[in-house]
Amino acid sequence: MRSRIIHVGLIGKTNSGKSTFINSIVGEKISIENKKINTTQESVTGILNVKNTQIIFYDTPGLILLKKNNIIQKKQNTELWEAINNVDLILFIIDIVTFNNYNTVNAIEKIKEVKKPVIVVFNKIDLIEKEIILSYIKKLNETNLIDDFFHISAKYNRGLDLIKNYLVTKSKYSKWKYEYNEVSNKSDIFISNECTRNALLKYLHKEIPYNISVKSKLFKTINKKNIKIKQLIEINNLRYKSIILGKKGKTIKRIRESSQKEIENIFNSKIHLYLEVIHINAK
Predict the structure, then answer these.
(1) CB-CB contact of 264 with 188 (8 Å)
(2) 2, 21, 196, 218: which could join 154 in a potential S-S bond, CB 3.0 to 4.6 Å?
(3) Is the Cβ–Cβ distance between 38 and 198 less than 8 Å?
(4) CA distance linking residue 64 with residue 81, whole number of Å
(5) Going by CATH, does the domain composed of 4-173 fall within 3.30.1340.30?
(6) What residue spans of 98-226 are helical by DSSP H?
(7) Can you tell me the distance from the alpha carbon of 40 to that of 209, in angstroms, rounded to the nearest whole number?
(8) Which of 175-199 are b and which e, b meaning 16 or more Cβ less than 10 Å from the residue's Cβ?
């Protein structure tokens, strides 16, 4: 049986559920999920193999097509358009609860400039009535911009098989890019760093996590069930250190415990996580 392949871009506004979608459809946690804005800071690839077809997903930063207010947003905007240009089709993930027809149409018109098929995926259908979903589809269908529609609940794995089957039909004959057992192009170190960044997003004031970075100092497999990880939380403003540490070290303890638990769930191993906060401008 000849091998087939398809490259799929996942785009959508912040909190539309792109990361949950890619984690659910691939079956592994490869992209962090958080309710704060701009959780995904770079494109993460997920790989799903269905019989002879390899489906490669590109989870992009939140949809920032026109706003480029700072360096981070400019970088995210560049990665978004690179992903759009390099895929075969686009899944536009929409949080159906916060759906805005005007804004959605404007975004799709912009995306269609690259002349790629756009498939709208209404997510979180468990939170809204079916009649409302159908009315939204009718509105968008009248624009003649959409190639197809799906409605799913990524959180509860509803409707994902229909999307898998659809993408298989759109694949082309070609050699696979990744091996059969690969689920992401990201390393274990990257994923563990992301878990700590997710914990920082969870426990810190909204502006702080976007001004710090997590770097790996040590990632060592002790044995089959134990991994030792040391990470550096790099800050560019010294005043952040006391905030991250918290009173009597309570905040950094919460961050460490949250990240450690998430990493353990992903790697199915006992994780020994050590965090160090450093000022990157320190001599």
Answers:
(1) no
(2) 21
(3) no
(4) 10
(5) no
(6) 101-111, 130-141, 160-169, 188-203
(7) 12
(8) ebeeeeeebbbbebeebbbbbbbbb
Percentage of the chain modeled with pLDDT above 70: 86
pLDDT at 7: 95
- Residue 145, SS3? coil
Mean pLDDT, the chain, whole residue set: 86
Given the structure tokens 């709208």, which residue do they identify? 120
Structure tokens, 114: 């690259």
Domain 188-279: homologous superfamily in CATH: K homology (KH) domain (3.30.300.20)
Task: Tell me the pTM.
Answer: 0.73
Q: Is it the case that residue 143 has pLDDT exceeding 60?
A: yes
What pLDDT score does 63 carry?
57
> Is residue 100's pLDDT more than 50?
yes
In this prediction, residues 66-90 reach a mean pLDDT of 66
Parse the chain into domains and list their residue ranges: 4-173, 188-279
Across 29-64, b (16+ Cβ under 10 Å) vs e yields bbbbbbeeebbbbebbbbbbbeeebbbbbbbbbbbb
3-class secondary-structure state, position 52: coil
Residue 30 near residue 44 (C-beta atoms within 8 A): yes
In order of 164, 193, 202, 273, the CA distances from 232 in angstroms are 39, 9, 18, 11
Tell me the mean pLDDT in the region 220-228.
90
